[in-house]
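Budget justification aside, the reviewers requested a transparent look at the raw inputs and outputs of the sequence design task funded under Objective 1. We therefore reproduce one unedited record. The lines immediately below are the C-alpha cells for a 196-residue chain.
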C-alpha cells in the first residue's frame, strides 16, 4: 500500500527554465548558441553547485571564468528563474492528494533556486518532505538521497512511489523497491495512481 509519494522538481513540479534562460541570454547578448550553456552546465561547478559545495555567487563566478567573458549575472539569473514556471495543474491535484499521502520532493537542485521555488510556488503548503541534493550533498540517482526521504516520511521503499521525468535518475529508488512512475502529464499520473 502506497503511503508516501515523492516528486522530482524539474519538468514535473516546474517547467525547467535553466536551458531556456541560458538560450535567451545567449540570444540577447549575441553569443553563439550553446557556448554559455557548455560553461554553465558541463563544467564540474554545476555539480558542485547542485551539491551545495559552492554558493550561487561562486557558481556564476566560475562560469564566467570558464566562459572567458563578463557575465551580467543578475540578468542571467533573472532570465533563468523567469523561464521556470510551476505545473499548476499538477500542484492543484497534489493539494487534494495531501490528505491521503505524505508528499515530498526529491531533487537535484541548487539551494538558492530550490528555496525560490519553495517560497514562490508555496510548496510548503503541499509537501512535508524535502530531500534536496544541495542540502544533503548527495545527488540522484545515489540511493542515499532516497533513503533519507523514506526515513523522513517513516515509510519503507515498498510503501513509496517516486515520480520523475528522467529514467536515468531512478536507480537508487529502484534499489529500495520504491514504485516508479516516469512522468508525462497529469492525466497519465492520475490513471497510474488509480492502478496502484
Amino acid at each position: 500500500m502506497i503511503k508516501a509519494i515523492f516528486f522530482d522538481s524539474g519538468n514535473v513540479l516546474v517547467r525547467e527554465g535553466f536551458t531556456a534562460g541560458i538560450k535567451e541570454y545567449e540570444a540577447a547578448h549575441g553569443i553563439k548558441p550553446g557556448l554559455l550553456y557548455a560553461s554553465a552546465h558541463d563544467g564540474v561547478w554545476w555539480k558542485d553547485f547542485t551539491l551545495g559545495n559552492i554558493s550561487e555567487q561562486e557558481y556564476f563566478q566560475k562560469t564566467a571564468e570558464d566562459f572567458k567573458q563578463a557575465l551580467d549575472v543578475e540578468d542571467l539569473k533573472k532570465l533563468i528563474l523567469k523561464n521556470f514556471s510551476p505545473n499548476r495543474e499538477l500542484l492543484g491535484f497534489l493539494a487534494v492528494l495531501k490528505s491521503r499521502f505524505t508528499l515530498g520532493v526529491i531533487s537535484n537542485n541548487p539551494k538558492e533556486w530550490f528555496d525560490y521555488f519553495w517560497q514562490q510556488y508555496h510548496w510548503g503548503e503541499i509537501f512535508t518532505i524535502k530531500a534536496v541534493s544541495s542540502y544533503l550533498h548527495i545527488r540522484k540517482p545515489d540511493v542515499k538521497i532516497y533513503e533519507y526521504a523514506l526515513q523522513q516520511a517513516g515509510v519503507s521503499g515498498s510503501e513509496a512511489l517516486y515520480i520523475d521525468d528522467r529514467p536515468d535518475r531512478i536507480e537508487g529508488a529502484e534499489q529500495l523497491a520504491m514504485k516508479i512512475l516516469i512522468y508525462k502529464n497529469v492525466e497519465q499520473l492520475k490513471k497510474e495512481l488509480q492502478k496502484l
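The longest helix spans residues 56-67. The mean pLDDT is 96. Computational costs for records of this kind are itemized in the attached budget.
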